[in-house]
Amino acid sequence: MHAKYVAKDGHKASKRRILIVPILLLTVGIGLGAAARAGLSPTWASTVTGALAALIAGWSVWALWVAFRVDPLRDVDWATADTYEQELTFGLHPDARAALARAQDQVRRRLPFADRVHLYSPDQLPKHDCTLDKTGCDCARMRVNAAVLPNRRHPVILVGDRLLDEAAALAYVLAHEVNHVRRPWLLVYGALQVVTLAGWLGMGLVLPWHVLVVVAPVVWVATMLLSWVNELAADIAARTTGPDAARAFWTMLRAARPTRAGLSRLTGAVMAVLAPTHPPITLRAALADRIAHRPLP
């Protein structure tokens, strides 16, 4: 099995988790806690809620262990990685190759137990002009973006094919993504996912409805703000790539955003409201434009 297919599947699973989990945590957590309080005696309600929270926490800890300590890609023939990466980078602009090499080196230094840091560009992506697409494809996110899968042994840098052709934008996005690979933040974010559902279960169990309708939105906003702060901090850290790199990326991303219609437009709007894990593009582009005029420290 080639490394790139496993990396592609892992990337899709990661995106689904990021988008779905925040929605389910709030509704399921509070709903189960409130249902336990309404249908069971106080003792049984506390027991059931505690057991559910323990199971969820245990599963989350196990998932983090698999992601960072165990090698989930152990069945991959990593001997094919060199040939694949040579083919991927052949013909790229020297600045693009330098940006990729710099990102690999930075990820390797932040994950010192890694055997090496691999590159992969997702395949089977739509070839048409994204701005003319009416199906709501993910080309804007996949083809002009990048991500890092921070596995302990075999971290993978995923890069969209259209981003590889824009050296300045590539350098900016990679600097942003590498900034996410910080062990303290990875641990904090993982711990947050472990305890969040347990906390909402507890809120549904303990808080009366008139208090719950106030506290739950506050907790939800705080959770989303934590994600926003992390994204904006990575944007600011990426300013080291120069004043024009951020502008190049946001201009390209705006041009590649799909035109949604019908159900795709509705679901996109719902996701933007319920799971705004990333700040709006307008805000991020404006911030990048402001900090571009400030000298580096």
From TrEMBL:
Residues annotated as transmembrane: 18-38, 44-68, 185-203, 209-229
Molecular-function annotations in GO: metal ion binding; metalloendopeptidase activity
Cofactor binding mode and count: Binds 1 zinc ion per subunit.
Cofactor: Zn(2+)
Coiled-coil intervals, chain numbering: none
Keywords from the named record: Hydrolase, Membrane, Metal-binding, Metalloprotease, Protease, Transmembrane, Transmembrane helix, Zinc
Domain Peptidase M48, chain residue ranges per copy: 144-288
Gene Ontology BP terms: proteolysis
Protein family according to the UniProt entry: Belongs to the peptidase M48 family.
Protein name (database record): Peptidase M48 domain-containing protein
Organism per entry: Actinomadura geliboluensis
